[in-house]
Amino acid sequence: MIPWLPGPTLQPRRGLTDQDLERITRASEAARSPGTHKIYQYAWEQWATWCAERGFEPLPADPAAMCAFMTQRVADGLAVISLSPFISVINYVHSAHGLPNPNENRAVRQVRDGLRRTYGVAPVRQAHPLSVAELRTLVTGIDRATLGGARDVAIILVGYAGALRIGELAALALDDLESRPDGIVLRIRRSKTDRNAAGAKVAVARGKHPETDPIAALQHWLRLRGITPGPVFVPLRGGATGERGLAPHTFGRLLKARAKEAGLPNAERITGHSLRAGHATEAHRAGVPLARIAAQTRHKDLSVLFDRYIRPVDALEFSSSKDLGL
Question: In the 8-state DSSP scheme, what is residue 206?
């Protein structure tokens, strides 16, 4: 199978050593995050497998095959927006091999436009933003005397209070924590929108209520975890903590499982993103200015923050249907 990541198109030449080429290749691979690597690899393998089953070559791609692939995926239930990784990786592989981009073909563009108009581009279901009341119900039912309970409560409360992405929670290490008298400052080494790894500092204040205080929950977990350097949140095996960090997808799973245990009505729609979304939504309800919310969530595009989190909260408040006398 043709690899999705062919590497930089540099040929060995006089003056370049094998070590030079190895370093160049590593730098090229680092242009995309590990998460993007996995998504692109999966998308390319799916495309290549589909082509093999239909008798097409994945490279160069036949525009008719692209159209058939996209329409079949959507017919099978894939959201139109979820075609993006397939389109992106096919573009990338063609560009890396010096081939024309098949997605610029007129027929392919028309089919994509038609799918957007027919099915829309919004995700089928967005993550349910956890309210503070739901958060309190969620964490008060967890036994913090156990390793798993202490860890999960710390994940939930720190993630919620910090408005963190699950990838950021997964990447936190002990030396990323800076204690302050009134809270803690987290060093985020890299995030989804920080392609150049400039990093950021995220503050988490002490809570007013013992059951939802993120700092107390984190300190309790760290006492049980121990002071061994490494990831803050680690897997548990045989009543002991592991050395490697939890995989990012684990955070969403444990959150959903804890929500079901707590009997939350929207448990099926709770994902790892529910913590970050809940923070933004509840902060707006509490009257926090948009600029302060954006500073915490690190949204550079305020329209994304407004459209995704703020406008849904205000929809009923500003609806003209209230004034129709119905």
Answer: P
Which residue from 91, 99, 53 is spatially nearest to 72, judged by alpha carbons? 53
pLDDT in tens, 110-147: 999 999 888 876 555 678 999 999 999 999 999 999 99
Distances (CA, A) of 257 to 129, 145, 280, 285: 16, 18, 23, 27
Q: What is the pLDDT of residue 176?
A: 96
Quote the CA–CA distance of 319 and 306 in Å, as a whole number. 17
Whole-number Cα distances in Å, 16 to 7, 12, 21:
16, 6, 7
Does this model's pTM top 0.70? My answer is: no
Compute the radius of gyration of the chain from its Cα atoms.
23
**For 285-316, how does the pLDDT look when each residue is reduced to its tens digit (9 = 90+)?**
898 888 899 899 998 777 777 777 776 766 66
- CA dist 48 → 35, 82, 88 (Å): 20, 17, 14
What distances in angstroms separate CA 146 from CA 71, 165, 264, one per listed residue?
A: 49, 25, 22
Q: Which CATH architecture has domain 132-314?
A: Orthogonal Bundle (1.10)
**Given 1.10.150.130, 1.20.1440.230, 2.160.10.10, 1.10.10.10, which CATH number is that of 18-119?**
1.10.150.130
Q: Tokens for 241?
A: 């903590």
User: Are the beta carbons of 215 and 207 closer than 8 angstroms?
Assistant: yes
Q: What is the pLDDT of residues 216-259, one digit of tens each?
A: 999 999 999 988 899 999 998 876 676 788 888 899 999 999 99
| DSSP β-bridge partners for residue 184 | 179, 204
d(CA 49, CA 54): 9
CATH fold match for the domains 18-119 and 132-314: no
